[in-house]
Amino acid sequence: MSDQNQRLLTIVCESMLESFLQEELPRLGASGYTVTDARGAGRHGRRGGAWAKESNIKVDIVCDAEVAQRVVDHINREYKQHYALVMYSTDATMHCVSAR
């Protein structure tokens, strides 16, 4: 077992961006990601998820710092002006178990 220092980048955005992100994240270097439904309230109002136009997703990406910055730059350039979204990141340690 070896631990690896990585970044955990989280993107909370309108669910209509999911299909775009599914195509773009691998191209930007993300080897994997997790998508979950997200509900809450913030600067863009309440997002209850009762219908498609008010549903949000949360995308978690564990990657190195270079990939995280590439994804942040891409999201800022392509989507931030037109869609409600927030991104944040933190250090993360991956606890990997070697395959037998």
UniProtKB/TrEMBL annotation:
One Pfam family from the record:
P-II
Q: Which SUPFAM superfamilies match?
A: GlnB-like
Q: Which domain of life is it from?
A: Bacteria
From the Swiss-Prot or TrEMBL record, give the protein name.
Transcriptional regulator
- Give the organism, scientific name: Candidatus Thiothrix anitrata
